[in-house]
TrEMBL record:
Keywords: Cell wall biogenesis/degradation, Glycosyltransferase, Membrane, Transferase, Transmembrane, Transmembrane helix. GO terms for molecular function: cellulose synthase (UDP-forming) activity. The lineage of its organism: Eukaryota, Viridiplantae, Streptophyta, Embryophyta, Tracheophyta. This is Cellulose synthase-like protein G3. It comes from Carya illinoinensis. The chain crosses the membrane at residues 12-32, 44-64, 84-107, 128-153, 165-183. It holds the Pfam family Cellulose_synt.
Length: 222
C-alpha cells in the first residue's frame, strides 16, 4: 500500500521531463541548434534503442492485457496530455499551499452532459468546450511543435543539412501527430466541444513570448 501511495504522490513529477521534451528540442530546432546526436555518432543508436524499447514494451503489455493498438495509442496520448496539463497544475497548487498562498481549482468541463456531448463522446472526440487555464500549456506546446516541424521540413526540402536535427524533427512530428485532435478543435470544429477562441489566442501569445524569450540565449549559440 505504501508503494502505491508513493507512486501516486510522485506521478505528477512526469510533467518535468514531458514539458522539457515538449518545448526545448523544438525551440532549438527553430534556431537550427542541434541538441541530439547525429546519425554518424554511436550515441544516436542509444536514443533509438531507448525510444523503441520503452514504447515497444508498453505496446507489448497492452497486447498481453488483450488491448489494441488504438487503445495503446490513446493511452500514451493521454499520458502526454496529463503531463502537460494536470500534473503541472498539481505541483503548482502544492507549492503554493506550502507557501501559504491561497489557490483556486481548475474546472475542465461542465458536469452536465447534453445529447450532443454524449454523441461526441461516443464518436471518440475530445471535449475542449470549457475555457480553462489547464488547456493553455497543452495548446502552446501543440503550436510550437507544429511550427518547428514545418520550419524543419522547409529547411529539409531546401536541401539544407539536417543530419543533426533529425531526432528533433522526429520528436516534433510525433507530438504533432498526437496533437491532431487539438488542431482540429482549434480550427476545424464548429461544435460546442471546440477550443474557445480566448484559449487559442492566449496560447498563441504565450508561444510567441516563449520563442522571443529563448531567442537571445539560443541565438548566441549559432
Amino acid at each position: 500500500m505504501g508503494l502505491a501511495y508513493t507512486h501516486y504522490c510522485l506521478w505528477p513529477t512526469w510533467f518535468i521531463p514531458l514539458t522539457l521534451y515538449a518545448f526545448l528540442p523544438q525551440l532549438c530546432l527553430l534556431h537550427g541548434l542541434s541538441i541530439f546526436p547525429k546519425f554518424s555518432e554511436p550515441s544516436f543508436i542509444l536514443y533509438v534503442f531507448l525510444v523503441l524499447g520503452a514504447y515497444g514494451q508498453d505496446l507489448l503489455e497492452f497486447f498481453i492485457g488483450e488491448g489494441t493498438v488504438q487503445k495503446w495509442w490513446n493511452d500514451q496520448r493521454m499520458w502526454m496530455i496529463r503531463g502537460l496539463s494536470a500534473f503541472g497544475f498539481v505541483w503548482l497548487e502544492f507549492f503554493l499551499k506550502c507557501l501559504g498562498i491561497s489557490t483556486y481549482g481548475f474546472s475542465l468541463t461542465s458536469k452536465v452532459i447534453d445529447d450532443e456531448q454524449s454523441k461526441r463522446y461516443r464518436q471518440g472526440m475530445f471535449e475542449f468546450g470549457a475555457s480553462s487555464n489547464m488547456f493553455v500549456p497543452l495548446i502552446t506546446a501543440a503550436i510550437i511543435n507544429l511550427v518547428s516541424f514545418l520550419m524543419g521540413l522547409v529547411q529539409f526540402l531546401r536541401g539544407n543539412k539536417m543530419e543533426g536535427l533529425f531526432l528533433q524533427m522526429f520528436l516534433a512530428g510525433f507530438i504533432v501527430l498526437n496533437a491532431l485532435p487539438i488542431y482540429k478543435a482549434m480550427v476545424l470544429r464548429n461544435d460546442k466541444g471546440r477550443i474557445p477562441f480566448k484559449t487559442t489566442a492566449t496560447s498563441t501569445c504565450l508561444a510567441l513570448a516563449l520563442y522571443e524569450l529563448v531567442s537571445l540565449p539560443l541565438g548566441n549559440q549559432n
